[in-house]
Amino acid sequence: MLELLRDWQRRATASSEAHYDLSTRLSKSNIRFGIPVVALTTVVGTSVFATLSRDHVNTGLQVAVGMLSVLAAVLASLQTFLRFGERAEKHRTAAEHWASIRREIDEKLALHPTYLASRGDPQDYLDDLRRRMDQVAQQSPELGMAGWWRPSRRYEPPPSPADRTSAA
């Protein structure tokens, strides 16, 4: 039971870290798109009002303002379509669920084995924990290989003695 809990602890920790990392990257992407959109729309709006007060406006300035307006619209559309903020929030929520499961397993592992044995059937606890882990996995957004690679390698279980002898 303890070895299984340690394995599930590693998996929950890796999942939590992967979702937190992806949430952070998506939040940064949201800011990277959001700041230029705000800046460009401000410049375009100001330029339009500035040109209204002039009788003759340079054609180059009109083209530049038009291009900035199109660029701002494209960036705003991409930001809306890619839903960086919404996706970041979903990954943060998934990370918190995995972290909660990891803390629960940490608590169980910290208890003395004789105490655990006196608290009822360990199979019932493992079944309940597995069910909750399955539920969190089903509700979690996809990570993709890029989001999963680093945490899975970091929390990969150490090779067993049998693996070490077969590799030699």
Structure characterization notes:
The longest helix has 51 residues. This protein has one domain. Helix 1 packs antiparallel against helix 2, helix 1 crosses helix 6 and helix 3 packs antiparallel against helix 5. Helices cover 85% and strands 0% of the residues. By secondary structure, it is mainly α. The chain is rod-shaped and about 90 Å long. The chain is built from seven helices and no strands.
List low-pLDDT spans. Answer: 163-168
Terminal CA distance: 30 Å
The structural domain count equals 1
Q: Which structural category fits the helices and strands?
A: mainly alpha
Summarize the structure.
The protein has 168 residues and is an all-alpha fold. The chain is 85% helix and 0% strand.
List the helices and strands and how they pair.
Blueprint: H1 2-52, H2 59-82, H3 84-110, H4 113-117, H5 122-139, H6 144-154, H7 161-167
Helix pairs in contact: 1-2, 1-3, 1-6, 3-5
